[in-house]
Amino acid sequence: MLVYFEEFQNGIKATLREKQFKKWKRDWKIKLIEEMNPSWTDLSLN
């Protein structure tokens, strides 16, 4: 299930963001998801 994603024009920036995101606590990740997709809709279906 895909509930959150970000788009980048630059692969380096995408990699840096991925590394940053992986260091975050679970609660921070959930908060970010709920801000962007409060109903946790599966975005892979669109």
Gyration radius over CA: 12 Å
Beta strand count: 0
Order of helices and strands: HH
Number of helices: 2
Shape: flat
Q: Give the integer mean of the pLDDT values.
A: 96
Low-confidence segments, given as residue ranges, are none
Proportion in β-strands: under 5%
Major β-sheet, in short?
none
Classify the secondary structure makeup into a structural class: mainly alpha
Relative helix content: 40-55%
Q: How far apart are the first and last residues' alpha carbons, in Å? A: 12 Å
Tags for this model:
flat; mainly alpha; 46 residues; 52% helix
Helix/strand layout:
Layout (H helix, E strand, L loop, with lengths): L10 H13 L2 H11 L10
Account of the protein in words:
By secondary structure, the protein is mainly alpha-helical. It has a domain at 11-38. Helices cover 52% and strands 0% of the residues. It has helices at residues 11-23, 26-36. The model has no long low-confidence stretch (mean pLDDT 96).
Quick summary:
The protein has 46 residues and is an all-alpha fold.
